[in-house]
Design brief:
The protein is of the alpha/beta class. The chain folds into two domains: 4-257, Aldolase class I (TIM Barrel, Alpha-Beta Barrel), CATH 3.20.20.70; 264-333. It is 41% helix and 21% strand. It has helices at 24-28, 36-50, 71-86, 104-112, 127-132, 139-151, 169-180, 199-205, 214-229, 244-249, 259-279, 295-299, 304-311; strands spanning 4-9, 57-62, 92-97, 115-123, 155-162, 186-191, 193-195, 234-238, 250-253, 284-290, 314-320, 329-333. The protein has a seven-stranded parallel sheet with strand order 1-2-3-4-5-6-8. The protein has a three-stranded mixed sheet with strand order 11-10-12. Strands 7-9 form a two-stranded antiparallel ribbon. Helix 7 links the parallel strand 5 and strand 6. Helix 2 (36-50) packs parallel to helix 3, helix 7 (169-180) packs parallel to helix 9 (214-229) and helix 9 (214-229) crosses helix 11 (259-279). The longest helix is centred in the C-terminal third of the chain and has 21 residues, at 259-279.
Amino acid sequence: MKHSNVAIFVPHNGCPHACTFCDQRRITGQAYQPSSQDVINAVETARKSLGKETANAEIAFFGGSFTAIDREYMTELLSAASPYVLSGEFGGIRLSTRPDAIDSQVLSILKEHGVTSIELGAQSMSDDVLIANRRGHTSKDVENAAEMIKNNGFSLGLQMMTGLYKSSADTDRYTAQKLAELCPDTMRIYPTIVMNGTELYDLYKRGEYVPQELDEAVELCSELLSFFEGRDIKVIRLGLHDSDSLRENMAAGAYHPAFRELCESEIVYKNTLEALEKSGVREGTAEFFVSPSSVSRFIGQKRKNLSRLSQLGITAVVRQDIRLSKYQVRAVGVQ
């Protein structure tokens, strides 16, 4: 049964900092602050569309600083959502917040209202990068908050960004390693996007910040995806959600509406090269066996992977094998 979220955005509310990259209102396309009635309306709409599958759905408060908003307002929103969870109709409440906005008191309130999953916007585990991007918290704050969340029985989600100002691929790998050590249940990975009107935009225009190219971000994020999945940590998001507002207001950065697909296709291509090496095929026609669900990953967007194989002198014939997993590839030369 597919998991789903009833997403409710609380944009840029409660955050005491203006991060270099942040323009929540443009990212979400929404500056409106939801009321308790808005929460009820969203959940009631979801009830009708999901039917019997509501038990596998979470009511999700996104925006990045949920536990930092006015306490009365936070409780009002939670109180509107909690009856649907405490009755067992919906699977839980998920929210995202800052690492420095977690303490025992707020966790008690969240548990009382049926919150099941808490995501922390860590973004980086390099204190130098956090300072440069005006995050307002430290890597130690991430570690402390993650420990408290897990110790109190919540599912822990962590979020990181690649290509931040003053970061590098090695710094991002370090962040991934440190976050994996916190044993989260889920991860989100976002390549940095330069939004108009942000401090990062000014740095970009002055030439002080060079954003990741798309191919560069795909190369790194495919590596990070393999890293987390290899540790049984589920990556539930790769790249920002596509929206008209995002596309209209972004100035630069590694954005693609199917970013995850590009990353998964890159993993399959690397495994294809390894399969070729094992098969001993150096040129000519080869049969490549993949999972039925991974045929498009093997081919690549706009047939990119087939083109790359062609440049190596390999003509690919794709075959399906239900015994193979998502990323597995087996190659056989054709006489």
